[in-house]
Structures are given as structure tokens and as C-alpha cells.
Amino acid sequence: MSKNLPATIMQDVRRSGIDRRTTSPLAEPVLIRLPEVMAICALSRSGIYERVKNGTFPAPVKLDGRPSAWIKHEVQQWNVRQIAVSRNSGSNSGHSESQ
């Protein structure tokens, strides 16, 4: 089996907006399992799957058989967007940054 990724996957990778300054254009996507996704996002298992179902979190990639994994860069991008939204929303969230 070739190490080259199918053209449709590479198109998705290009559309995902991978930062070319920090990622080699030849780099293949890194897959991570649920425990690492939970650690990166500070979300519970059910929170992740609820957001996947609602279309607000990257969907997992089905691996051979039963397991699933996520594309690490997509999860990291989601995190960056959440931080940006949080910072731009000001006091709308009801949380104060310092007390």
C-alpha cells in the first residue's frame, strides 16, 4: 500500500488551513485517539461526541474495524477558534477572568 494519501484527503488537508510555516507541506496528518482529544480540549467524552453530532467539533476518522481517531490539527484548530471566540465575547460568557 502506498504511503501517499488519496487526493480527496489531501484536498481536505489543504482546505483545513494547515499553517505552512509550522508544518511541512509533505507532512501527513497525525491521528490521535479520544484520551488525547479530551486532554487537548478539556472536554468529556460525551461533550466531544455531542459536539460532533451537532457539527460543532471535528468528526473522527473511522479506522479499520471499530476504533476511531481525530486529525490532530483539526482538533487544535477547534481549540484556537474556541479561545478566539472566548476572548472576543468579553463578558457575554458570564465568567470573569480575575477576581
Topology:
Elements: H1 7-15, E1 31-32, H2 34-41, H3 45-54, E2 61-62, E3 68-71, H4 72-88
Antiparallel strand pairs: 1-3, 2-3
Cα radius of gyration in angstroms: 16 Å
From the spread of the alpha carbons, the general shape counts as: globular
Q: Total strand count, please?
A: 3
Sheet with the most strands: spatial strand order:
1-3-2
Overview of this structure, please?
With 99 residues, the chain is mainly alpha-helical. The protein contains 4 helices and 3 strands; from the N terminus they run αβααββα. It has a 3-stranded antiparallel β-sheet. A hairpin with a 5-residue loop joins strand 2 and strand 3 (68-71). Residues 95-99 have low confidence and may be disordered.
